[in-house]
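Hi, here's the filled form for the chain we discussed.

Project: internal
Contact: R.S.
Residues: 144
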Amino acid sequence: MAWPRLTSRNIRRMIRVTRVVWPVVTPFAMRAAGYTRHRWDFARARRLGVPVDQLPLFTGRGAALHARMARLAASLPELARRNQGDDEITQYAERTGHRLADLAAAVRVAEHMAPTRRKAAHQAIARDLDELESKLLARLGLDT
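And the returned structure, exactly as it came back:
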């Protein structure tokens, strides 16, 4: 298909059409863009396992790892509350909290690594998180 030649008459015609169509189309385009962004954020929050309003807290390539650590850290007080007076559980929760802080620092450091090193670091951190999660579930009595 051949494109029409760009002449001053064709350009003026396109400008006139644009002046009429633009105010009508713009609100619909803005609404569509907002809806698309909302769906995108909702899907990302669901993938990370966090509420949509907490999504800005988890950014970067290690966002999923940070979200996992936040969920683990949030369950530690529940473990301590369920087992009040048990010094072993209290110490475990404290050690796990310190370990999560170390892992969070490792994820932040990995953000500045080369892609292959970052991927290896993230895999190692994910393995540590898997182990921490399984131990926590066992202590909560949800061992599978």
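Let me know if anything looks off before we file it.
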